[in-house]
């Protein structure tokens, strides 16, 4: 099983801060996705799974593993966006199949987006 390369992950606090106030949203049962145009030209993932979701780290890590794997499988078909996946408390008790199905629907909504240009570029 291949992991996500570092270029596919959001790492800096400024990248997460930009997504916290992003206007692009996709609602799902167990997740909220916020997105903005990616300056890098490829889809990148950020995760927010807080202790409000579950106090147990094992539950939070399970959610993060499922989200990363789902993103890895759909990444090639996504437009160039930075996506912040915010888990809701219901994700802690949901079955893995329900989480995957929820994410599949969210990725389909993102795939339907028209290609967007990064802020400050000419075009689109």
Key phrases:
single chain; alpha+beta; Ribosomal Protein S5, domain 2; 4-stranded mixed beta sheet; 4 strands
Q: Largest sheet at a glance?
A: 4 strands, mixed
Low-confidence stretches: none
Q: Report the average pLDDT across residues.
A: 89
What is CATH's topology name?
Ribosomal Protein S5, domain 2
Task: Describe this protein's structure.
This protein is α+β, with helices and mostly antiparallel strands and 124 residues long. The protein has a single domain, classed as Ribosomal Protein S5, domain 2 (2-Layer Sandwich). It is 34% helix and 19% strand. The protein is built from three helices and four strands, in the order H-E-E-E-H-E-H. The protein has helices at 13-20, 57-74, 96-111, and strands at residues 24-27, 31-37, 44-48, 81-87. The chain has a four-stranded mixed β-sheet with strand order 1-2-4-3, sandwiched between helices. Helix 2 links the parallel strand 3 (44-48) and strand 4. The longest helix has 18 residues, at 57-74. It is globular and about 35 Å long. The model has no long low-confidence stretch (mean pLDDT 89).
In short:
This protein is α+β, with helices and mostly antiparallel strands and 124 residues long. The protein is 34% helix and 19% strand. The protein has helices spanning 13-20, 57-74, 96-111; strands spanning 24-27, 31-37, 44-48, 81-87.
């Amino acid at each position: 099983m291949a992991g996500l390369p570092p270029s596919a992950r959001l790492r800096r606090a400024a990248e997460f801060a930009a997504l916290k106030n992003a206007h692009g949203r996709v609602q799902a049962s167990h997740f909220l996705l916020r997105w903005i145009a990616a300056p890098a030209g490829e889809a990148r993932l950020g995760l927010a799974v807080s202790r409000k979701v579950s106090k147990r780290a094992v539950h939070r890590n399970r959610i993060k593993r499922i989200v990363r794997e789902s993103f890895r499988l759909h990444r090639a078909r996504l437009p160039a966006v930075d996506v912040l996946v915010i888990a809701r408390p219901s994700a802690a008790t949901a079955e893995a199949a329900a989480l995957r199905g929820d994410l599949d629907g969210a990725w389909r909504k993102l795939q339907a987006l028209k290609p967007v240009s990064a802020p400050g570029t000419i075009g689109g």
